[in-house]
Please model this.
Amino acid sequence: MDYKNEKLFEEKVFKDPVHRYIHVRDKVIWDVIGTREFQRLRRIRQLGTTYLVFHGAEHSRFQHSLGVYEIVRRIIDDGFSGRAEWNDEERLLTLCAALLHDLGHGPFSHAFEKVFTLDHEKFTQAILTGDTEVNEVLRRVSPDFPQQVADVIGKTYPDKLAVSLISSQIDADRMDYLQRDAYYTGVSYGHFDMERILRVMRPAEEQVVIKFSGMHAVEDYIMSRYQMYWQVYFHPVSRSAEVILIKILHRAKHLHTAGYPFKYEPVHFKSFFDRTFGLEEYLSLDEGVLMTYFQWWRKEEDAILADLCDRFLNRRLFQYAEFDPAKEYRKIGELERLFKEAGLDPEYYLVTDSSSDLPYDFYRPGEENERVPIYLQMSNGELSELSRSSEIVDAISGKRRTDHKIYFPEDVLESEGNPLYEKILQMLRGE
Amino acid sequence: MLQEHARIVQFIAMAGEARGRKKLQKMIYIAKKMDFPFAEKYELHMYGPYSEELTLRVEELCEMGFLKESCTDKGSYVQYSYNVTEEGGRFLETAAAPHEKLADCIDRLNGKSSRFLELVSTLLYFDYLPKDEQIEKVRIVKNKLNFTDDEMQDAFEFIAELQACSVVA
Model:
């Protein structure tokens, strides 16, 4: 039997708190899971700094990747297989793309990407097509198979239906992370009836569509996504931790550039500071490595780096205040001046942060919208955009919500010894 | 502080006006590829590289009163344009000056059509690939736009010219 169709002698199962079991029968999938690049995902948390707010949120991208794979496997094997619109030849390719869609995430992904202006999707492509164990496994299917997997993940694969299973407004990625993040954070918002959605998903020419009778389950999914964004993903305390993390990396980079003599050489970071890194340097990083450096840097002579690392490790996070940039942008300039005068570097201790989300959007004819909408399949077979039938979805379609905060070390400002501290606090608190 | 907001307002102020959401998206993407420091994250969407973050930021800047959005009915589609307001101008007085080469880059982009910039930005999205594979990718993801060989050639020549005004040139 060729490798593409080779099955394991016995099905392997992973126990999973969200899906109960994750079933693996394909030899290729089993081999991919065993590669060092995929195993690395065990050492990268799915929700970055959120564990500092919701202590259960220690789950990894490894778990999420298996979850996305399992959802796609069920969609294909239990729903699409044998239907005219679905090409069964794409099964293994789509499963591999589902499993590997987050392969390029780095430690504390978004913070790390922001500081070093990286893109994890580019790294996913590079790992799949480069000199890696994953590539070696995929190449055994066919020489162009690694590139095909990269194309599905990169949304450049010609079969848009395969792409939409992993990347659309109702895809396996979102369905897994909403449920998994809700489970591990312990919140009650992210739940929806996935079983129902899987039963009403239908393959169409260029994307997955939903049978009309499943509309209410999709409404529930969209509302749970909305709630999760504002209750978990944009939680201001979690953002505070991320702000400090970003500032640690900025400070370390600044010190390196300025020739600061580190007691503990940032060996793993040097190529990122100098922008000379390659794939191997990227793969050598995980959250354990970063946390080890933070432990060391707590003992550095540089007071800012030591303080920020101590704050992150011991959860002495910045306080936040609401901030309206339209009315208060001049206040920021004044605060920066006062911070400098008080001996606090505003570059590291006065930070504005914005969160913004659009829960659902649809294409309006004649507009230059970029989002592919969710379509309902009506009883006569015609497709209808979701918000035309759902009043709930219509009510939130295209509605963005934005939130601005300003972060600062309240503990320092509340300490005695500097007469300017009180004035700064009054300004920050709008008194 | 609010530097990322300021950069977008600054860009539109220097362009005079941003005509078309799609064109603005592509212009900023191309400027970012020329190493100008725009923070917005891009992904490949139906019209090429697209940044949800930029869409959010522009909308936010309108709400803040720093940009003004106006729409024109063009028959088969609606075109959105953005201008910097007086308050936006005052906001810019508090921001750091833009990179000296940015004006040249914007001038070159401003004169090009939205379709052409869509082609250029999509080619740049795949700039880690050899030229023939870049073209092949564009033909797959933009199959409905039927870009001609001449357009491809023009786009590559334009990219080469743009490198002259990139930050690192």
